[in-house]
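Quick log. Single chain, no ligands specified.
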Amino acid sequence: MISFGATNDKRVLDALHNAIFGTPIEGDVGFVLDVDGKPAGIAKLKVTPEESHIVRVGVMPKLRGKGYGDFFTRSLMNVLIDVTDKIVIDYVSDYYLKFGFAEENGTMVIDPEKLVFPHACGCGNADKK
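-> predicted structure:
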């Protein structure tokens, strides 16, 4: 089973962030992806009603290439649609272009109502929320 949620368990957050990014997490709250009941990924977000930032998203090295990062990222964006006026990715990556993000000053930006969720396989038409 795959699930995710916010946690302030600093032990879990630091262990995951160290394993994925090589440093302890900044701050006291993060989102954790669980795969079969085990922590598998981590995301750091800054959320406000006006503008929400996805600071970073990562998956444990041994679990990469299996779609977990895509699931996690899509899930986070889907949650942000209902809580913010703008979604900002704090780094540039072509990955976000397929969702409708545009590069702006070293970040990726989109208004939530313009966000699209294309099929992960790349087939078919893009699905809007």
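The chain has two helices and nine strands.
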